[in-house]
Design goal:
The chain is an alpha+beta fold. Helix content is 35%, strand content 20%. Helix 2 packs across helix 12. It is globular, with a radius of gyration of 24 Å.
Length: 435
């Protein structure tokens, strides 16, 4: 709770002292685990895991199951034009709603926890409040964002991009590999491609958004900490770079006369790693994730290599500082290898920093539940990144075993899931008092 306003610290302390959460039974961990298991049947793969890709029959079937859970929790269901699924529980006062949730679609051959924990955890919070007869000041809405993972028609975060007003014009006319337009799938999901702009959410409609999610990394597991308080979702800076040498015969060109673009690129890959590791502050990561060598023949020295350089961190200035060092290193490498090195201008997605009040409330909730918490950035993108454009937001992480995600081997223990949902519930109760 450091580095937040005095008023918010007092509000968090007030929440901790009210004892409201302490009078309620803990979340029903067994029920929560059974719903996660039941959801995993939709799009299940033989090797374990799931392929519940957005805008697919498995996705539709999973959404039908989730809507049944929402009804059991007493939520009033609506589907917006982008196919986002909302379940509402009215509050005692005429206030903007608190929004909680995540997504249930997956990558192909993905796991059963990414998105699912936050979605079914949010429904469990609503069920727990209903079962205890607790009425909040604010209305509470559970949201299941459509097509967060993307792939068939869009890169990702389709539903929350629609809510933020970020979708490109004409997207509903896009067709998949079978020639089926996106608009057809939106109608099947209960959306309306003709009124897609109406899915946009204006600032002030929601008091704030909370998303529970698996970490998708190994930081928390390594630290032995059960609750992650997310500082924000990182900036991503991406460049496509080219090493331009000279393609020549691999057998007749002496080693000291070569202009080998791939040798230069190999040095560049290591330079990216070295410059990111040399940064003394923050939690930056850098990746060369794609390389194409041309002409690509075993008996020809590569004359041209294209490769990507991606840097992620919460601080835009830190990314720029690392990027400048990398560009300097590439120039040096080019001179050493007699190769021209040049990169495109960086494409940058802006970081979404979590609200200090929400971080304070999550810390207070974890403390009240007797659970240790640590702050960390999210290196992966989430729907919360879009929500931050129209509402304050916070995120809660729970550990991923082995740091594995987007894999059938993705796993978060039942206890870890229950701890995360308990903190989510307590945070909702705290924010309901303080906002």
């Amino acid at each position: 709770m450091r580095h937040v306003g005095k008023g918010w610290v007092m509000a968090a302390a007030l929440f901790a002292s009210t004892g409201v959460a302490a009078t309620l039974p803990p979340v029903n961990a067994a029920r929560l685990e059974s719903t996660l298991k039941a959801l995993s049947a939709f799009g299940a793969e033989p090797e374990g895991g799931v392929s519940r890709v957005g805008f697919s029959q498995a996705d539709l079937d999973g959404r039908s199951y989730v809507m049944g859970l929402m009804r059991e929790a007493g939520l009033e269901i609506r589907i917006d034009a982008a196919g986002n699924l909302f379940g509402r529980r009215e509050g005692r006062e005429s206030l903007p709603a608190l929004l909680i949730g995540s997504h249930i679609d997956s990558v192909p051959h993905g796991g059963n926890y990414d998105g699912d924990v936050g979605s079914l955890g949010a429904i469990e919070v609503a069920r727990a409040l209903q079962g205890a007869g607790v009425s909040l000041r604010h209305p509470l809405e559970v949201v299941i964002w459509s097509d967060e993972e993307g792939g068939r028609y869009y890169l990702g975060s389709f539903g929350s991009d629609a809510a933020a007003g970020n979708l490109p014009a004409g997207i509903v006319a896009r067709r998949d590999a079978d020639g089926v337009p996106l608009g057809d799938w939106l109608r099947r999901m209960g959306g309306d491609p003709e009124r897609l702009s109406e899915a946009r959410i204006t600032r002030g409609r929601y008091a704030g958004y909370l998303e529970l999610h698996i970490e998708q990394g190994a930081v928390m597991e390594r630290a032995g900490i059960p609750i992650g308080v997310v500082q924000g979702i990182v900036d991503i800076s991406s460049r496509t770079c080219t090493a331009q040498g000279f393609a020549n015969h691999a057998g007749t060109t002496p080693m000291d006369q070569r202009k080998d673009a791939l040798a230069a690129t190999s040095k560049a890959v290591l330079a990216v790693r070295e410059e990111v590791r040399a940064e003394p502050e923050g939690h930056p990561v850098g990746t060369v994730g794609w390389i194409e060598a041309k002409p690509g023949a075993v008996n020809v020295i590569p004359g041209t290599v294209d490769f990507t350089v991606e840097i992620r961190d919460l601080d835009e200035a830190r990314i720029a500082r690392i990027d400048a060092r990398i560009q300097s290193r590439l120039a040096t490498i080019g001179a050493e290898e007699s190769v021209q090195m040049h990169c495109t201008a960086p494409e940058v997605s802006t970081a979404a920093v979590t609200d200090p009040a929400f971080r304070a409330a999550i810390h207070a909730a974890a403390d009240a539940a007797g659970l240790g918490a640590m702050e960390l950035p999210s290196g992966a993108g989430h729907d919360a990144q879009n929500v931050a454009t129209f509402a304050p937001m916070g995120m809660i992480f729970v550990p991923s075993v082995g740091g594995i995600s987007h894999s059938p081997k993705e796993y978060t223990t039942p206890d870890a899931v229950a701890h995360g949902v308990e903190v989510l519930r307590r945070t909702v109760l705290g924010l309901d008092v303080s906002l």
